[in-house]
Amino acid sequence: MHRLLVQPTDVVVPPFPMAPIVFVTRPLPEPGSGLLHDLGFEVRSNVEDRPLTRAELMAGVEGSDALLCMLSDRIDAEFLDANPSLRVIANYAVGFDNIDVAAARARGIEVTTTPGVLTDATADLAWALLLAAARNLGAGERMVRAGEWTGWAPTQLLGEPLRDRTLGIVGMGSIGQAVARRAQGFGMHVVYFNRNRVSPQIEASLGADYVTFDELLRRSDFLSLHAPLNGESRHMFDSRAFALMKSTAVLVNTGRGALIDEAELVNVLHEKRIAAAGLDVYEFEPTITEGLLELENVVLAPHLGSASTLARGDMVRLCCENIVEVLAGRPAVTPAPG
Ligand code: GLV
Ligand code: GLV
After folding, report:
1. What distance in Å separates the CA atoms of residue 60 and residue 23, rounded to the nearest whole number?
2. CA–CA distance, 321 with 2 (Å, rounded to integer)
3. How far is the centre of ligand 2, averaged over its atoms, from the C-alpha of 191 (Å)?
4. CA dist 4 to 311, 314, 320, Å?
């Protein structure tokens, strides 16, 4: 796993003739954009803790050499054409569906992401949602907080056990693998689907069997999504896919909302065609599709996958190192794949 801990003292910062300008679109956790300042950059940033509007983003970034942006910032060809001074875009995320990477590279602008450093944080959160959805934790918490709990009862909020059940993982990159590794502790069987089969060594160490997508849908008691969002994976979970799933299945999504047809998910959960879902990401984020909030059998988290102090700090460091490397004329540490 890529472990990066850039410190101002051990990064070789080239003697830039003039401090390059970096625009940062959102306040960052420790070590914060102060790290960029310490590295010799001129830092311009959005100091308000809210996403910038398109116009604010356009105005703020003007004349910058580098952009450190969020998954909520849409970087398309029009944006790139308006900012010819940019040489690197460091996305503060491992996903990069918010950026037209091909358009950026066609203009000589490198795009980087933050793989590795948020793997464990995201795998942990997937398990938090899986357990919460399997054991009715959301509904239980709402009952307690509403003052409606009258005491222990033999029939109350019975959930699904994990041991000897099958976990299906969609997308077997580093996060999918970290989720599979944790499944061993729960005594589960693991099947997975990925565009490319992983090595036999990895399969053996995880005890994970490669299956087709349809077989995964038919066999899984729990499903966890870790595939990147692209033209192929958008609405992978549509009415056809839901029809193949067990009525007792629990679906967890910490990847990207649009992997699921969210309107259809609302119908499926409402009609109990699957048992439950745990969502960290949404198709129209931060808007929640109508009907989802009223359902008892879904646990809803506000996109917290990478939200651990360690992961979010290392993401800052990795973005900074990518910016240093590209502006120094060296290869990016973690370029966006593709
Ligand atoms: C978060 O969703 C990320 O892609 O890092
Ligand atoms: C997704 O399925 C991938 O190939 O990463």
Report:
1. 7
2. 13
3. 14
4. 11, 7, 10
Cα 71 to averaged position of ligand 1 atoms, centre (Å): 7
Chain segment 198-223, per-residue pLDDT in tens: 999 999 999 999 999 999 999 999 99
Pocket of ligand 1 (CB under 6 A): 71, 93-95, 118, 305-306
Q: What is the model's pTM?
A: 0.94
Where in the chain does DSSP place strands (E)?
21-24, 42-45, 66-69, 88-91, 110-112, 166-170, 189-193, 208-210, 222-225, 250-253, 276-279, 298-300
Ligand number with the minimum distance to the CA of 97: 1
Residue nearest to atom 1 of ligand 1 (CA): 93
Selection from 314, 303, 318 nearest residue 125 by Cα:
303
Above 80 in pLDDT, residue 235? yes
Name the band, by pLDDT with cuts 50, 70 and 90, for residue 136: very high
Q: Output the ligand 2 site: residues, CB below 6 A.
A: 171, 173, 194-196, 227-228
Ligand nearest to the Cα of 119, by number: 1
* Model confidence pLDDT, tens digit, residues 271-289: 999 999 999 999 999 999 9
Q: Please, are residues 305 and 118 in contact by the beta-carbon 8 Å criterion? A: yes
pLDDT at position 309 over 90:
yes
- Which residues are designated catalytic? 256, 285, 303
Q: Is 252 left (phi over 0), alpha (psi -120 to 50) or beta?
A: beta
Cα of 68 vs centre of ligand 1, distance in Å, is: 14
Q: Which residue segments constitute the domains of the chain, with CATH numbers given?
A: 8-117+308-327 (3.40.50.720), 119-300 (3.40.50.720)
